[in-house]
Amino acid sequence: MRYAMVIDTLKCVGCSDCVVACQTENDVPIGYCRDWITETVNGAYPNIELELKSERCNHCENAPCVRCCPTGASHIIDGGIVLVTADECIGCGACIESCPYDARFQHPDGYVDKCTFCHHRLEKGQLPACVSVCPTKCMYFGDLDNPNSEVSQLLKNRKHKTLAPEAGTNPHVFYLI
Amino acid sequence: MTTSRRKFIKISALGLGGVAASTTALNMFGANSYLDELVKENIAKKFKRTPTYCEVCFWKCAAWTYTDEEGAIKKIIGNDDDPHCYGRLCPRGTGGVGMYNDEDRLKTPLIRTTVNGEETFREASWDEALDLIASKFKNIKETYGAESFALIKHGAPGAHLEHLFKAYGSDTIAEPAYAQCRGPRETGFALTFGSWVGSPEPTDIRDTKCLVLIGSHIGENMHNSQVQEMSDAIDNGATIITVDPRFSTAASKSKFWLPIKPATDIALMLSWMNVLIEEDIYDKEYIKKYATGFDELKNHVSQYTPEWAYGITGIKPEEIRETARAMAHAAPSVIIHPGRHVVWYGDDSQRARAMAILNALLGSWGRRGGFYFKESIKVPKYPHPEFPEPKWGWKEIGAKYPLAQMGITTEVLQAALPSENNEYPVKAMMIAGTNITKSIPNKKLLEEAIDALEFLVVIDTMPMDVTGYADVVLPECTYLERYDGIRSATNREPSIAVRVPAVEPKYDSKPVWWISKQIGERLGLGEYFNYDDFKEVIDWQLKKMGTSLEEMEKIGVKNFPRTSGPLYLNENETYTFPTASGKIELYSHELKNLGFDPMPNYTKHPEPPQGFYRLNYGRAPMHTFSRTANNPNLNDLKSENNLWVNPKVARILGLKTGQAVWLRNQDDVTSTFSIKVRITERVRWDSVYMVHGFGHDNKKLSRAYGKGINDTQLISKVAIDPIMGGTGMRGNFVTILTENPHKNIEI
What is the DSSP letter of A154? Predict the structure, then answer.
């Protein structure tokens, strides 16, 4: 089992529904977010390219946040999901500094918070909230260990990239380009 | 409650078994061996779900409101059976919880009063406010006639108030959705095909091979099912052609982006017609069978070559030919999208006609992947006495626009201006669900008209700017707290949805059906409101339609089979279009007889003078006009608009990204607030762009007050469409001020 998210930048319109859905699903306080939208513009008028995409914790296989956590609050569970146990987190912020994706934030209750791939929903057989609401259906989620899963097939057949590959983190959020 | 870690693991081991057993359909992930506290709590949560349809915009997606064991609204999720959302709401629908939670909501009725010489509002009881309103209704009727009490409305509450006004004897009713939005396209398409486009547009985007967007920015406007279907079309390899001076999100998804010079769209479309006809690639059989006026059209467009259009539009002749051929290649599975907010330059009905004619030449109306024949189910009329016949109403007020099919807000405002010989004087007004200081241009007219009114009532959920002008303000509860009329929508199949309150109204807010009934009863019109609770009406209607409120509370949405015939034209049968000739009218005798161009012509529109830039405006996906700016969830995503400026312009003016600037238009109107510059290649050098709906004036909107610029404030010049009265708003030019023009004035 190796969970992965695949996001099709050719379909994403950057509407931020994923951000609000995460907020309401996970009680993320107003003013904070576990996922967000980025917009990249290249070229000069009228030869322009625009890439919109939804970003979040990359649930890295080689996760710097887990390595640097002094208490073990940051850890990786089955399926490769990187989690933070709030009770064990002392809020030192080392993980926030170490993350090349800026995916973590200090929750007002004192611990560090971030995307969980909505694993409470996975347990119920549901997709992560962001994936389930996306109006463009540009987000896919599934098991990379299963060669027939939608995510495996998409990565097999479509051109894709990961973010900050130079960081050597082996991320598990992929972008179709 | 805090559970110790050890204890928790014990529980989760039990919990997991239960979860695994209940998970069948989507068990593609398997179960984790680990569950933390949060997860366990989340899984254990018992949600109750109540059906609704969204009121954050006009798309009215059906959804479920989830409340927890304490009765608090937790989230809103789309209804899988709904053809407006296919189970997926847009960010505004998902963020609808913020509309309920917003602590700045109107909480009690308010009545204007004077304290120490200063005008202010005082809180009032519902009885006092409603008695006052009822006395004004009576007084206006006795003094001037019921017709002089006008209603300007938007959305679901409007229907209840329309019922009240008609029972009272007034049909002086208008909404910005017509003359400030989609009116011209309804007129243009009705003149050509005999029927309105309507909402949702019957565009068969999911099956299209070519989607042509002219100034329509799907993806930035989140017209939900269309956004979803456009995404499907991208998956299916459809060709998207976007015509827009701005590199919109849709442009970035397009095979062809035509960066047109603003205000020249009709020239481009005439040249497309020229190519389709000259190259003989239009749908000859379709035109022969269904259309009239082809010879006139052929003759008319023969002069409009791509070379001619190049000089006007800036689009190269080969690009015009290539895109015309791409459309013809895909035909009839091609859509020249009619757009939605189409009041641009005053010749908007003619531009809509050009779109309709192109669709006809491509044979797309009534064809798979083009436009389908929409169908809805009629909601039975709950019995009430006949409405009295008003002596005049919106039609008479807007009579100088012969093809206006609905009330024109700006004409209703004109009718309120003091005048000696006004045949149709508007003396009092109710405004509900629309913040007209942001939805209607020409603020001078607006303020003069409001000033002249004897009485103004505003109904809203929020202290929008317009409430500041009211004599009485009534707090409406949000859509999550009330019943409303059945949503019967036109789609591929008829579909209905219900709105059921998930929670009791917060504060002292009330549903508009209740407000209408209360006013009606005070006016002796109780027989028009023959129920205690509006849900009795819904249940009665649903039962006539073969279901019931009880059933609908469980399913939320019900889809019905079609009864009007096939979704597309049946090639073997004759088809009569609902036009005067029974055919698609490429040449319009109706327009000719009224003294208008029977076929569209290109008109040159004013261009920005030196140092000025055309003010373009549009939508952001997470906001609906000005109504969501203060919503805590949506404000969190986008709290202000930015001024998009081309880097060339920024260099000349020495602007930096993030710098605050003010705008002044051609009529010397200066923006109240400032806006932050965003330097981007996505906008032309002759225009600036901002998202509509920001720059709120009311301090009671704690998050939205003073954030960004209200584009409508700078739209003082309107180009009126002589055919239907639409207010063209894209002809305003602004200059950029880097110094605060108000620095000596307290704002």
Answer: H
